[in-house]
Specification:
By secondary structure, the chain is mainly α. It has 2 domains: about 70 residues; about 80 residues. About 65% of the residues lie in helices and about 5% in strands. Strands 1-2 form a two-stranded antiparallel sheet.
């Protein structure tokens, strides 16, 4: 059961429905963001809401295109997708671990573990994967937290690194 063959049309419909659910849930989460402090200020939820609405529109369009459009009868192209299940499941669980880990153990540890495991398994060079994961975590911290002032749940980096 390593490889699974799926019809492209069904895969795209499932992805569209999944994205509709995800972006709808993300939009509901943005409703709990803090209201704007100043009048005329769009507030903290403006860009997340904008991204959710745009992504939701594209997902709905994709769903309707794939679900209700007549299937082309070209015998040459069967439209099958091969899914290698173990790497797909590993990626799925690692992304879930990253999301849960950001809230539980801090973003920096979660980013490091995510990158370290994926790079280590892919390349087999664990020391190199650790070095790249450390550098990438520091770059993510510098860009998002220090320069863009994105609030991430951090555990220890602000104590040791300031810009």
């Amino acid at each position: 059961m390593k490889n699974i063959e799926l019809d492209n049309r069904h895969v795209e419909i499932v992805y569209a429905v999944l994205f509709i659910v995800i972006f709808s849930g993300a939009y509901v989460i943005t409703l709990s963001f803090e209201p704007p402090v100043l009048s005329g200020d769009p507030g903290a939820a403006f860009f997340p809401k904008l991204i959710c609405i745009a992504s939701l529109c594209f997902s709905v369009i994709l769903f309707f295109q794939r679900a209700f459009k007549a299937r082309k009868n070209s015998g040459s192209a069967t439209g099958k997708t091969r899914l290698d299940l173990p790497p797909f499941l590993l990626s799925f669980f690692l992304v879930g671990g990253l999301i849960i880990g950001m809230a539980r153990i801090g973003s920096e540890i979660s980013f490091f573990a995510f990158l370290f495991i994926l790079l280590g398994l892919r390349t087999g060079r664990w020391l190199w994967a650790a070095l790249v994961a450390v550098i990438s975590t520091l770059v993510i911290y510098a860009v998002f937290v220090a320069f863009l002032n994105v609030r991430l749940p951090l555990l220890f980096l602000p104590k040791y690194i300031t810009f």
